[in-house]
Amino acid sequence: MKRRGPVAVWLGLTIITLGIYQLVWYFKIHNELQEFDRRRPLSPGGSVLVLLFLGWTVIAPLISFKNTGKAIADAQRAAGLPVTCSPSASMWLMFVFGLNVWYMQRQLNLIVDAYPGAEPGTQVSLAA
Asked: With CB atoms 3.0 to 4.6 Å apart as the test, which of 3, 32, 54, 126 could cross-link to 60 if both were Cys?
């Protein structure tokens, strides 16, 4: 996985690109989570399509963010880390200035930090 700045993902790049970067980021993290642990299948394209076409429903993005939180928690478990990612926080922080993006990226960075020196795309050993 790639280490990204949580504030840059949450605020900086999203504002500069008028929200497009958040969709790109969402696709990328799902793709990276899928490559990290292939035992848990994810649909990066499907996750982005939910935000694009069902974002107006509010319920569909909430479910998608909760499922992303579960995937991050599973990846933390697979990396042998204590699980600190809360799927509920990944979901409900959406209503607090979109802080769920910042929160999820911080949790992903914990996984990246567990493998110091590993380049993105490098095969790593999983704990569970």
From this structure: 54
Distance of CA 92 to the CA centre of its chain: 15
Overall average pLDDT of the 84-100 stretch: 95
Q: How far is CA 67 from the centre of its chain?
A: 10
CA pair distance 11, 22, nearest whole angstrom: 9
End-to-end alpha-carbon separation of the chain, Å?
Answer: 18
Position 40 scores a pLDDT of 87
- What's the CA gap between 81 and 11, in Å, rounded? 27
Q: Is 18 left (phi over 0), alpha (psi -120 to 50) or beta?
A: left
